[in-house]
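Subject: for your reference before the review

Hello V.,

The reviewers asked for a structural picture of the protein, and I figured it would be easier to keep everything in one thread rather than splitting it across files. Below is the amino acid sequence we used in the manuscript, unchanged from the supplementary table.
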Amino acid sequence: MRREGEDVVYITPPRFLDPTKVMLGSVHVPLATEEFATAEALLHGDGVYEGPDYRGVEVLMGSFHIEGIDWRVIAKIERDEALRPAHRKIRTLAAGTAGALLLAGLMVALLWRGQRAGILAYRTQQETERGMLTQHYARMVASVRDAVFLTDKQGNIVEANEAAVKSYGYSMAEFQTMNAADLRTPEELPRHEQQWRPAVGQLGHIYQTIHRRKDGTTFPVEIANNAFEIDGTTYYQAFARDVHANRSLEVQLLRLSHLHKALFAATSTLLRARSEDELYKGMCDVIVDVGGYCLADVAVPNNDEGKTVRFLATAGRDDGYFAGASISWGDGPLSKGPTGAAIREGQIQVNQNFSKNPAMAPWRDAALKRGIQASVGLPLRAFGEVFGALTIYSDHPAAFDGEERTMLTRFAEDISFGVEALRRGHDPASSQRGSGSLS
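And here is what came back from the structure prediction:
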């Protein structure tokens, strides 16, 4: 969500939001609405807040501002639900304390009466209860979704739960031959001691790093680490949570933010263009410089025997890539890429991963050498006929999802509109915009 004037605007409206409080045509909620706890986050910034939400239910809520854009992520939980485990623990503690006091009184009475047998029975009971509690704790750790590791003071892994085995790909026997530092990538290894040791003497220490699975793949993790003693021996317990999904969301929102800015910049380019070459080059520059993509080009078909294409404009991380591309819009392996297919079929073509897409084999090595991971080809039309393709390249695999493709289509529509206006002999700035309008 974010603030617009005196309203709150949602990317995704809350599930239980009263539809009568949503303004017609958009997901807006007045900031001054009573029982609207998230207003505190917009007025006072990041933090943890307590109060009623839009349903009138008391909640605990955390607010996090996404760096680089004006959106916030709100996470909340009902107050009763959040405090229920604490209340339960308090009741359990009170009952246990009362029971302990009662047993202590009985012990004193038994001592006074010389009944040592009763004391021994009590001790046996305590050991049994402790064993049951230990088993219960072990079952609880085994069932959590986060990976949990128990290590000795040197960081050698003593135990790991089932989630760790599934997530990292190591067996329990393999874990028990490893050190916690072995889970890190080589780049993160120098920070291991600096981050691991502060848990000693503290209630806990939280930090982030990069871990590596048995198959070599890496992922970001948030570690909650704490130290404790058993019979004078220090152990570490670390909860490792995969935060890849959170980082992916941040990256996606940042890409969409850049794309919105690029679309506005494209309007200015369209209005200023006085020739097709100027239009093509200006649009490619905007896509790379403002949109944040690594490469862009406009290509048109040649009517030669090999049905090759020629590039009218390029921008970004070329470094000879287009000179050696040998793209075709006809048949054969060189026509299977997004550019040739978009010209030939007149439909948007998406390559989400150069490494894994067999059709991209002719260009894979050259693309990966330049850090290019994905591409999309968008057909360009003038007067109903396809005359070329706009191809955009990203350094993120799986970059071109549904929303991003929809927004990129508007670049192709703007170029098509400008070409039609220029070929009619009109200034695009004085023409009536069509369906590709930027408003």
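For the response letter, the relevant points are probably these. Confidence is low (pLDDT under 50) at residues 431-439. The first helix runs from residue 38 to 44.

Happy to draft the paragraph if you're swamped.

O.
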